[in-house]
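In response to reviewer comment 3 from the previous cycle, which asked for concrete evidence that the modeling workflow produces usable outputs, we include below a single protein chain processed end to end. The sequence was submitted unchanged, and the resulting structure tokens are shown without manual editing.
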Amino acid sequence: MTAPEPYYQDEAVTLYHGDCLELVDVWTAADVLVTDPPYGIGWSIGNHPKRGSVAHAGIQNDADTAARDAALTAFGDKPGIVFGAWSQQVPNAKQTLIWRKPPDSGVIGSTTGYRRDTELIFLTGRHSKRSAARSSVFTTDAGMGSYLNGHPHAKPIGLMEALIEWTEGVVADPFAGSGSTLVAARNLGRKAVGVELEERYCELIASRLSQSALDLGALA
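The workflow returned the following structure tokens.
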């Protein structure tokens, strides 16, 4: 099979536009999976001007966990770091980490008085054995405006760097979204390969990577 043409490529990152389940050969050769997949919660949101939210029809393939589970199966037993929800847990996860979001998050959709301001992160596959030196809770104190960038589920670069830095080798993100995994990997001097289904987000990722490359060049 002829390899597809990359949507974006630099010395560290290669990004493809398409369905990751149709492009398995381009990302499953990587060493570690770091991804925020659609995980079956059927997310969508309406306009809430007072709360600062803009309507979004939802994420493709988020009606169930089929795409996520197929991607995990394709990657095999190599180490994975996979964002998810308590209601749609990843089978055979070795451990669950928690991302505590910033204080201005989790208001929309909450009906109990408690903000929905945490997100689960599942460790899958074979991870290196280490002494218990880190907390399993990752905290973001800066507001959502510090990392939301046009994708409704963008993740902070600092969070992704913290997750990636304890891994080794080439990073794969088959649900690249806004590209935070790819930017973080490159910031750490790691090679990464991503796949994104929606072209508008490929454009966003390419813009972020190109801009950060220009910024790095200016500092050199």
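Residues 8-219 form a domain with the Rossmann fold fold (CATH 3.40.50.150). We consider this sufficient to address the reviewer's concern, and the full set will be provided in the supplementary archive.
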